[in-house]
Amino acid sequence: MQIVELTDEDRIIAAKRSADMGKLNNSIEHGGGNIAGFLGEIAAQRIYGGEISHTYEYDMVLPDGRTADVKTKRTSTAPKDYYDCSVANFNTRQNCNIYIFCRVHYDNSKAWVLGHYDKKKYIKDARFLRRGEQDGDNGFIVRADCYNMAINQLEKPMTKPEIQ
Prior knowledge:
There is one protein chain. The chain is α+β, with helices and mostly antiparallel strands. 22% of the residues lie in helices and 29% in strands. The chain has one domain. A hairpin with a 4-residue loop joins strand 6 (98-105) and strand 7 (110-118). 32% of the residues are buried.
């Protein structure tokens, strides 16, 4: 897990991208998490390198050519390694190679780049939960069918020189 301090410029860029995008279909937070999502992408790019590429299928193209979808949750505290990362079931149809997971503090001051996981392996290895079920690990009631995996099961974030 790597911490990225976010700047005023990062927040301005994320707010502009959020306004340009509007509310996505199937948004669990009805657009409320857009800025955090874009901040997660900015943080992931700082760690992994590559180019942000806003398509439906993926968010980034890494230096080695793989595509990544960045999954971001907002948080009020530093994430613990046993906290879960989630991918909503309707997002599993996206054509990307890996998922990169991030957390962004509610005040948008910092992000934690938690790690990554191969998309096909993630769907196979993660716990599947149905909407309305209680997550046995933390008691959260799931808002959409999803796949959950603990942070400590992710591959550690790769730094730019490692991706070649």
